[in-house]
């Protein structure tokens, strides 16, 4: 942890530019490029209620509702929305955003995550998170945040799996969709990222997966080993 920040210049805000990975690319969301495939992903009936349960939007089953949302998302700079594009097919299988971008203090959050059935619980989804975190720290950010409804057990579990540190719960933080939200806070800070980055790279490596696609070592295991040094 850095106490003397006299010479801290601030971070470089994320640009509206693609971020390339081995399994997915993050592309600034564009209705003309991503509209059809992203609508198919977010409106897929399998699990749709659960995908939207903790998001501000209601399930986007009507194309007109989705088109209104994506048109607005494409012009937003904070949140800055990215389509998660499968490199093997060129199809957008989900979306996520960098948000609450505070470059002066070097703090940024990932949010608005919606991974469709073709992306959720895959190595591509893990890489989508990794690419945002890596971009944040490469751009000089000191802190990368994950926040979620405390009732959202899958999101809380995902934050811990991804190596975020639990910081606490803001009680009665928000009202949305007619209900209370207690918000759980997690973070990764810059001094932790080199070890976490190494663990991600080991996990994402093709050698970590057998012929059937099963992982040889879990991300939790690799992160725990990296933290032990």
What share of residues is helical?
A: 25-40%
- For the secondary structure, the number of strands is 8
- Multimerization status: single chain
Q: Name the strands of the widest sheet in spatial order.
A: 1-2-3-4-5-6-8-7
Summed over residues and divided by their number, the pLDDT gives a mean of 96
Poorly predicted tracts of residues: none
Task: Please compute the radius of gyration using only Cα atoms.
Answer: 18 Å
How much of the polypeptide forms β-strand, as a percent range?
A: 25-35%
What is the H-and-E element order? EEHHHEEEHEHEEHH
Our count of helices gives 7
Task: Write up this protein.
With about 230 residues, the protein is α+β, with helices and mostly antiparallel strands. About 35% of the residues lie in helices and about 30% in strands. The protein has an eight-stranded mixed beta sheet with strand order 1-2-3-4-5-6-8-7, sandwiched between helices. β5, α4 and β6 (about 145-150) form a beta-alpha-beta unit. α4 (about 125-140) runs antiparallel to α6 and α6 runs antiparallel to α7. The chain is globular, with a radius of gyration of 18 Å. The two termini are about 15 Å apart.
List the helices and strands and how they pair.
Blueprint: E1 19-20, E2 24-28, H1 31-43, H2 48-52, H3 63-75, E3 80-86, E4 92-102, E5 107-115, H4 123-138, E6 143-149, H5 153-161, E7 165-176, E8 179-189, H6 193-204, H7 219-228
Parallel strand pairs: 5-6
Antiparallel strand pairs: 1-2, 2-3, 3-4, 4-5, 6-8, 7-8
Helix pairs in contact: 4-6, 6-7
